[in-house]
Amino acid sequence: MPGAETALSDKALAYRPVSEEQFFHTVDDGRYSRRIYKNDDLREAEKLLNQQFKAYVSERNPELLTWAFDEHNFSLRYTSSFQQNFERSYNMLIQM
Length: 96
Description:
By secondary structure, the protein is mainly alpha-helical. The chain has five helices and two strands. The protein has one domain (about 10-95). β1 and β2 form a beta hairpin.
């Protein structure tokens, strides 16, 4: 049975959004919130934010580097949610 190990079919698991609106909610002044983090190309500002946060994390807990910065982009979820507050983002990550 296809997808027997999950509740979703192989077709559903293979689905990838294609439109910008599916990935981002953008407001009139250009600010946006990302809706999809996993397996998506990051924008330049997001890449820079991730690099800066990675340096911050590596000084405090290098073990987090093995999973917080993988294809799921957990690090970016927190840094963007907490308006680039690295300390608050880090504190949330270590609670996971």
